[in-house]
């Protein structure tokens, strides 16, 4: 099944593993069974309870929470794949800009580590984002599943059993 929409999760998976992106987009989902994902959801639900949470826009971007002063937040539990998280947040900024929403700040929060990383969208990021979106569409529309990474990331991936058959 092919989606025209590109979600924040798809951007994240693009940087984590293209095979994961392909599997996810072909409706092969094992995320609910993965304990690490459950822990991540618990942290998400248990954090920042006073803010506006889970703002879904066009079923494409799902902002973890937003402050009224124009700051959006994405919550993660570890910094292991920070590049993917940063680009997910850059995509939110990029997406909102397409709708004329500019001059907002973005922060990547790690409640367990008590750390926050500021994320911005530079001009060169916008150019790279168009390439990323093209690449994602190419991957998800392909009949061929991308190769297995077979590295440390796989050990904690919900698709581990499927990929390692
Ligand atoms: S197990 Fe590894 S190769 Fe398979 S989807 Fe997960 S990260 Fe990608």
UniProtKB/TrEMBL annotation:
<keyword id="KW-0378">Hydrolase</keyword>
<feature type="domain" description="DUF83">
    <location>
        <begin position="7"/>
        <end position="164"/>
    </location>
</feature>
<dbReference type="InterPro" id="IPR022765">
    <property type="entry name" value="Dna2/Cas4_DUF83"/>
</dbReference>
<dbReference type="InterPro" id="IPR011604">
    <property type="entry name" value="PDDEXK-like_dom_sf"/>
</dbReference>
<dbReference type="GO" id="GO:0016787">
    <property type="term" value="F:hydrolase activity"/>
</dbReference>
<protein>
    <submittedName>
        <fullName>Dna2/Cas4 domain-containing protein</fullName>
    </submittedName>
</protein>
<dbReference type="Pfam" id="PF01930">
    <property type="entry name" value="Cas_Cas4"/>
</dbReference>
